[in-house]
Amino acid sequence: MPSIKRHKFKLTDEQLLEMLYWLKLIRAFDERLSILVRQGRVRSGVYSSIGQEAIVVGTCFGLHKEDYICPLHRDLGTFLMKGVSPGVMMAQMYAKATGLSKGRDSALHSGVSELGIFGNTSMLGANTPVAAGLALTYKLEGRDNVVIAYFGEGASNTGDVHEAMNFAGTHKLPVVFVCENNVYSYSVPIEKSMAIEDVADRAEGYGFDGVAINGNDVLAVYQATQGAIARARAGDGPTLIECKTYRWHGHSEHDPAFYRTDEELAMWKSRDPLPTFTTYLRSREVLDDTKLLEIETRVRQEIDAAVTFAEDSPHPEPGEAVTDLYA
Amino acid sequence: MPSIKRHKFKLTDEQLLEMLYWLKLIRAFDERLSILVRQGRVRSGVYSSIGQEAIVVGTCFGLHKEDYICPLHRDLGTFLMKGVSPGVMMAQMYAKATGLSKGRDSALHSGVSELGIFGNTSMLGANTPVAAGLALTYKLEGRDNVVIAYFGEGASNTGDVHEAMNFAGTHKLPVVFVCENNVYSYSVPIEKSMAIEDVADRAEGYGFDGVAINGNDVLAVYQATQGAIARARAGDGPTLIECKTYRWHGHSEHDPAFYRTDEELAMWKSRDPLPTFTTYLRSREVLDDTKLLEIETRVRQEIDAAVTFAEDSPHPEPGEAVTDLYA
Amino acid sequence: MREIIYLEAIREALREEMARDPKVFVLGEDVGAYGGAFGITKGLQEEFGEYRSLDMPISESCIIGVSVGASLRGYRPVAEMQFGDFITCGFDQIVNQAATLRYRYGGRASCPIVVRAPVGGNVAGGLYHSQNPESWFVHRPGLKVVAPSTAWDAKGLLKAAIRDDNPVIYLEHKYLYRRAKGPVPEGDEIVPIGKAAVRREGGQVTLVTYGAMVIASLEAADRLAKEGVDVEVIDLRTLSPWDKEAVFASLEKTNRLLVVHEDVKTLGLGAEISAVVMEERFESLDAPVMRVTYPDAHCPFSAVLEQHNLPNADKIVEAVQALARY
Amino acid sequence: MREIIYLEAIREALREEMARDPKVFVLGEDVGAYGGAFGITKGLQEEFGEYRSLDMPISESCIIGVSVGASLRGYRPVAEMQFGDFITCGFDQIVNQAATLRYRYGGRASCPIVVRAPVGGNVAGGLYHSQNPESWFVHRPGLKVVAPSTAWDAKGLLKAAIRDDNPVIYLEHKYLYRRAKGPVPEGDEIVPIGKAAVRREGGQVTLVTYGAMVIASLEAADRLAKEGVDVEVIDLRTLSPWDKEAVFASLEKTNRLLVVHEDVKTLGLGAEISAVVMEERFESLDAPVMRVTYPDAHCPFSAVLEQHNLPNADKIVEAVQALARY
Ligand SMILES: Cc1ncc(C[n+]2csc(CCOP(=O)(O)OP(=O)(O)O)c2C)c(N)n1
Ligand SMILES: Cc1ncc(C[n+]2csc(CCOP(=O)(O)OP(=O)(O)O)c2C)c(N)n1
Ligand SMILES: [Mg+2]
Ligand SMILES: [Mg+2]
After folding, report:
1. Do B121 and C102 touch (CB under 8 A)?
2. pTM (two decimals)
3. Is the peptide bond before A314 cis (omega within 30 degrees of 0)?
């Protein structure tokens, strides 16, 4: 396993605070969504990333606008970090006309080409060949952009992920494969869906490196991603980064998650990426109470504004059910 | 890579001669088929295994009747070794009523359940999940049978092979995965379809062992297979055996194979599995001229009889085009 | 007779068949301890063991391929797609592997698998949790396709599907899981594959439908009855092979036919029914066969959009009125 | 005008489009130095470089997914399936990924990919090298489907498909590769998607067909002409959206319609045409719309069996005679 140099890619104090802002914004967004589901204001398709935010922030932080992301269903935060406003994302969850898909679907089933965001179908793994296709165009053009392709440890068992990794490896395409290993695939623990511990081990079979890292450590994720990106930009091809993590909520907001123990959940909550990072920032004297309050206030205001925007947005016109089928 | 103990699984002189018989029968069958294609007597779907016979013989030799095989398109010989007569196989290639599929298809797209032979579709890799399903039933019943699943290095890139290997590994199913790496996938050399040299390396990603062996050495193939079978029967799960080999003919009998050099072909012809094995048998004094003549005569007679049987067999009745669609 | 919901009827059929025949087993994503995304297989793993209600990795192609393999050794696997929409990921194993098996084996083997697929909309599912995939499979020789609309049929058709020696696609409509409640016989009542049911008798217009649209159709028929239009509602139950005789018999009375389905219009099942009726009963038609269907569009998530697309009693009433007037 | 064969016309369209637009590229199995299983892409890699005629690993799902990805960055990939039959292995990427892209992006993106699929029988292909997959895609909103029958259209429709901003399934019939030879304009003649062609004018019976069946249909029409039955033969060319106006216009003259296709009967395109004609032109029909198609069976390898199943001029003549007599 290539070692991760924790301090290779330097971050300014400002950048570190920005990371904290994103962690908090994404957490707050998902927490609010969870409430909105219970209130019946958002109907379904809500897959909380609470507990996994460090992966989203660590992988997206510092991406160029032209870099592409191909997120999985739980990665709503990646859309925010790539430039979609919280209001538009909230409207998307509300299926309002102002959402990305104009109400055609919720969740992350829509994309924004200008921002380098691919919106997948529901079909797990199906985003990875698309990621390879995007990366192929960068290679053809000799651009130094990269594509980040996300999938769960469960989705890693789909044929699409295999076909995509093999193709990307063969042509040394600039893709970073990010496996979010949160122990469960819906109700199924990893040991019931594969005989290995580290999905990262599969990379070798495609001719590139795989690393398994602490997915709850935003800096570790950032360092690993930046390393992989640097290699990809240099023409050295893909890397598979497996981020070990855990989701706090059920698979979706409708899942009571009886299949796991309270102890397991508690253990992982003790590894919450947010306080870990906050403590680190305080210890490095990057963060103080004023700054923290500033960030928290900003986050609260943005989420409130997003909900207001979504609530106030119109529903799509019924006739839009049959438009945009063809260009 | 687990080492192969070349002499672990003992063979009697009689068995060694039987192996030679099979090598020669399969070679002769494919050579005759090649002529029949050029004569226009057999229409298409002919994928010669000439040069690769050691894999077929080494993997099938000693299988129990209840063991199952799931061959690839080039493995006509496996059908013979599992008990289908050369006449019936020839009739299958002629699309006669006496063929396995009664003329519905040619080649290996038909099976014989009583003999433990699965007949795949054309879709490469699609036999491997079926192999896992067969193996699952052995596990459920606590039988000590095994399934041998064959695929080319080209087919190893399909999603199905990934999904099947992962499932088989997870449940330690009694499957032996045999990858026949003959350097080319139709016209495409292996380095243009994957970034690794040994497909065997992929096994690790599924939690079982992979070995790359000389696929032109029938005894090496036999030893490796028997070792894998022993582990499978003992409940230790799958093994991936990658057999390095080469096909002498084009991809199908219609392919002139311009994509490779004469030198490459000549080099591989010098590694012909048949003389290698013959020389070995002579040096061990298992084989002499009389015995060789006996085998060659038998083979010639059987192939002649097979062709006569196929030629003399009736075509299917036209109405059979629409029967056997439903049970 | 006791009444149970559609969802429980499916579970009961699975349990009874698994108890009756040790070769019957269930496999799919989360079907083990969790009992499946909709709770259909709840309790089965506890009762029958890990391998008879088997959690599979996310790999639909493998799930179906494994089923085919097991069926070749005499098993009767029931594969669950978590949502019917994902059946596209196992498409090849169904239409090429399973559907052609008996044919290519020269009739010497069969492939008794069932693929259960939760289908249909009106459940806030959106583009990939609402689809109606029946046409793809009705079009393919070698497969059977069933689509129960009542709890009774959900049980009886699943039993028939499991005992059938052919690959059967079993389409269970998510909208009906808890809404279709009714009498269901305990034990071995089989609903035969290939037989439609007349849900309401009537003499003026024949309405042929299936799945969740049976509910909307019956509602429409009730309303039409008040206007004096007397509709016969036929629930196909089996989509392949569909019950031509039942449709023709009703048509002989009414001479007017409307097909209603939730699937999109173009090459939805209505097209085939219309074409066959034209070919074989042209002289019986006093009016053209008409269709009320989903438009040729995807299944949007927004309720506003989805209701625009879904067929409903209003649209059916209007179509029947037009037919009756014709 | 010079005459070339269908296969060369396809190659010429690819070459010209690749030369015209650097965003056009070809990908598939063996399409590089080898030039594809049928030699369609021969010379393209030499002329345009490795990555514009790109050999792909055996992975149809990936081939199509990669195409979708490239299309999102403004490329116009033309994916080749080695045989149309294998399109089932990339089915999900077509029907869910590509077909819904524009819709789910709220109209803010499009997916201009072409999937070329060599289809059809009568070439000793057997079960998995003879299939006609059109219905699956015609049924799916968001896709277009074309199926040229002449060398001219093979070129012109491929150009149109490549320039179209939607995913287009381009069905090239293997039987026509060398048999369909005819005039083909050099350069930029486009055959518009959605427009049928009248291949033979006639006033008594309208025959609607496409692909290789155009040949059998014209042969039948010639024979029928000698008997004094005057058939108008319409070649649809585009199957989705099919040209309703052209069919209706002919029907207004003839009042009799036969659909001929090589695809199986149940839910083949003939079903939809029949249903639409019934719905919209019932009063124009002097006889029921009839179909001559493949039976609901697989594509057998034996010539004896295959000829039993294939529609041909004899079967068409018989059906037209029955229609004319009606
Ligand atoms: C092809 C496919 N099969 C099944 C599903 C249903 N499904 C949605 S999420 C999920 C579990 C995903 O697990 P994992 O990939 O580990 O991601 P996680 O939800 O844990 O983040 C399943 C089975 C799907 N969306 N797509
Ligand atoms: C899913 C699928 N895609 C494409 C093909 C066409 N095809 C048949 S054999 C072949 C090459 C196979 O290569 P490999 O797996 O290495 O086996 P080999 O022929 O070399 O023995 C291809 C591309 C196919 N049969 N199935
Ligand atoms: Mg997971
Ligand atoms: Mg090979």
Report:
1. no
2. 0.98
3. no
